[in-house]
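One-letter codes give the sequence; each number marks local geometry. A record appears below:


***
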Amino acid sequence: MRNFLRIILYKPILKIAAKFSSKPKRERIFEALGKLYTEIHTNPGKKGLVIPFVESTGKFIIFSDQHKGRRNGADDFTRCEANYLHALEYYNGHDFCFINLGDSEELWENNIWQVKKKNNEVFDTEKKFIGRNKCIKIFGNHDLFWDNDPLAWWHLKDIYGEKIKVYEGVILELLARGQEPGMNTADAELPISGSPLTIFLTHGHQGDAQSDGNWFSKFFVANIWAPLQAFLRINPNTPAYDAEKKTLHNNIMYEWSSEQKNVVLITGHTHQPVFGSLTYLERLYKNFQQAIHINDKNREEEIRREIRRRENDFTAVSIDYMKMKPSYFNTGCCCFDDGDITGIEIANGYIRLVKWSGKNALTERVLLEEVSLEQLMGQL
């Protein structure tokens, strides 16, 4: 009966949600991102932190969109938990700073007590970064609770053993070569690009009416979608789900970032990994054109097969994919339906898109894309 109802109801439910929910609006998103970026710069510590780092030694791992729930059929995180725990143990052991970029807890579908009760091991592992003062927690639209509930501070202390502040964003500022925190910038060698690189991180829901205050979305998720998802065991976190809206949102994020000077924007929210402003399919198309240009027939055929395998996961390719400025990155998510998780690393002078994937009860780190910060600055 469940499978029968799943087949019948899956598409109608998604169509109803798409019809009544709001779409990303460029003007709202531009205004919200600009306002947050300025507020963090002018008044650090309130909305977010400004963290200087050295190219050769700064180490950050950015994960988002775990959507930790209560271990029922609607809990999209369950399949990914093992990979997530292995990844956190690795990064903690290698002295990374963990930036938790929002929607870590699914608090539209669950209450905080349910999430706390079912995620002790995960919270204990995240706590290790807090113990080293290497954890920054950002709120998203599904865990806005951390920003607006008067008892949020108590729940955070109950979870992590100490009081922590949850921010809306964070800015990482690359120091000029030879400069350490506290040094006079005049004594430092400037990067090759001629100016420092600024990396602006936020969840990415700002200005999106569907996620930033739309009453129908919250009502639909809490009262209709969540119970149906639990019963029908539907996980919508595949690249194809609601792809048009996610692609539109990513495009607007890119447009904002491309208008800034020496700024890279990193968000989550859409669950679609983006590296250097390109989705995986767009990068395949770009590599295909380059293979044609150098007349590498074997490479052409290899990429052509991969495009055919992947193109059904995406509904749009930017017409400017060959010349897009590499100013926008997206972490993807930690709740894919195959159990994989993706994230962004910044370490050893590189920025990387990585995947943690479980195979035969083993979890491995897979490097998907990378570029040096020096090269990135030159391209900006």
Notes: Residues 183-195 have pLDDT under 50 and may be disordered.
